[in-house]
């Protein structure tokens, strides 16, 4: 694996290997990498979880973290993303983590740079490390993916999390369903839309999405309470979920909108577990990109323990 910019190009085997490796790391930890490695975290959009869990992952792996704040960087003097990334490559960064509002930008950088690029979210494009941590969380629950019914619920059209997860879950043999307002449906995704009332009854995994207000061009006329009632996870709907079913949300959560605030930490919620798994998932990706995780055969998974 040279870069980690999309779930599209990943085979079932590649995804499963990363999931299992991240799961091992989450349970047992891992030794620091051998040698000195610098990571450049280039975040041009706000982030709490992704940015900070990359920092924790990098430090746990013994990497030097080159923090970057776009608002006091030479980007404010007009420097391009390409020249910024090339600068980090030139001064010795071994890895670039990029979050940016422009879809496909991580792919473009990956084609131009000789060091690995990780997509930490590109506009409405993809968010593959979020998907990986979601998959780790599902794996810890069910130990396999084949045939699981996963419903992705909410602002599908504007969600990079929805896109990466729909692709990866389908590659892994899950039955993927979508649910949400008509205006926010994305018909480029080849999965059936169902109602939220049906979703809660069939889902093994209910994956809620944040409303992406920052990507909307049309002012919404509904109230938060109306959205929750029509499309969100209410107390009544949660009560109709299967006993074994779990709730995921990439966060940040709009409490009382996508989900009743009383359900954010309910028994079947895995929302904070997802965040915890984010560190291990990102460690597994970095380790693989820096060729420190071996060839990801079963024996190599545990080689560096
Ligand atoms: N889930 C996620 O990407 O959160 P942040 O925007 O806080 O990184």
TrEMBL record:
Keywords: Pyrimidine biosynthesis, Transferase. The keyword rRNA-binding does not apply. L-aspartate binds at residues 77, 160, 210. Pathway: Pyrimidine metabolism; UMP biosynthesis via de novo pathway; (S)-dihydroorotate from bicarbonate: step 2/3. It comes from the Bacteria. It is an enzyme of class 2 (transferase). Residues 146-288 form the Aspartate/ornithine carbamoyltransferase Asp/Orn-binding domain. Carbamoyl phosphate binds at residues 49-50, 99, 127, 130, 251-252. PROSITE patterns: CARBAMOYLTRANSFERASE. GO terms for biological process: 'de novo' pyrimidine nucleobase biosynthetic process; 'de novo' UMP biosynthetic process; amino acid metabolic process. It catalyses: carbamoyl phosphate + L-aspartate = N-carbamoyl-L-aspartate + phosphate + H(+). Its EC number is 2.1.3.2. One of its GO terms (cellular component) is cytosol. The keyword Transferase applies. One of its GO terms (molecular function) is amino acid binding. Residues 2-140 form the Aspartate/ornithine carbamoyltransferase carbamoyl-P binding domain. Catalyzes the condensation of carbamoyl phosphate and aspartate to form carbamoyl aspartate and inorganic phosphate, the committed step in the de novo pyrimidine nucleotide biosynthesis pathway. Heterododecamer (2C3:3R2) of six catalytic PyrB chains organized as two trimers (C3), and six regulatory PyrI chains organized as three dimers (R2). Belongs to the aspartate/ornithine carbamoyltransferase superfamily. ATCase family. PANTHER family: ASPARTATE CARBAMOYLTRANSFERASE, ORNITHINE CARBAMOYLTRANSFERASE, MITOCHONDRIAL. HAMAP family: Asp_carb_tr (MF_00001). This is Aspartate carbamoyltransferase. The lineage of its organism: Bacteria, Bacillati, Bacillota, Bacilli, Bacillales.
């Amino acid at each position: 694996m040279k870069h980690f910019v999309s779930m599209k190009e990943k085979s079932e085997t590649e995804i499963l290997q990363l999931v299992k490796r991240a799961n091992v790391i989450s349970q047992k930890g891992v030794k620091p990498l051998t040698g000195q490695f610098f990571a450049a975290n280039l975040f041009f959009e706000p982030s709490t979880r992704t940015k900070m869990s990359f920092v924790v992952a990098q430090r746990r792996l013994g990497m030097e973290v080159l923090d970057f704040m776009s608002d006091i960087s030479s980007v404010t003097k007009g420097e391009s993303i390409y020249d910024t990334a090339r600068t980090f490559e030139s001064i010795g960064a071994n890895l670039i983590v990029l979050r940016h509002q422009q879809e496909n930008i991580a792919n473009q950088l990956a084609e131009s740079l000789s060091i690995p690029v990780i997509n930490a979210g590109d506009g409405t494009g993809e968010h593959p490390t979020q998907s990986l941590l979601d998959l780790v969380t599902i794996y810890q629950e069910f130990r396999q993916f084949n045939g699981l019914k996963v419903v992705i619920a909410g602002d599908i059209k504007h969600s990079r999390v929805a896109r990466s997860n729909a692709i990866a879950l389908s590659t892994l043999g899950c039955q993927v369903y979508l649910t949400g307002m008509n205006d926010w449906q994305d018909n480029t995704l080849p999965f059936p839309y169902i109602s939220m009332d049906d979703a809660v009854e069939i889902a093994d995994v209910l994956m809620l999405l944040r409303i992406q207000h920052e990507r909307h061009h049309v002012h919404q006329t509904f109230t938060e309470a109306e959205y929750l009632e029509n499309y969100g996870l209410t107390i009544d709907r949660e009560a109709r979920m299967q006993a074994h079913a779990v709730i995921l949300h990439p966060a940040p959560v709009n409490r009382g909108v996508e989900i009743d605030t009383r359900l954010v930490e309910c028994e079947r919620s895995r929302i904070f577990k997802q965040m915890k798994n984010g560190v291990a998932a990102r460690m597994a990706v970095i380790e693989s990109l820096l060729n420190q995780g071996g060839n990801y055969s079963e024996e190599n998974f545990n080689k560096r323990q």
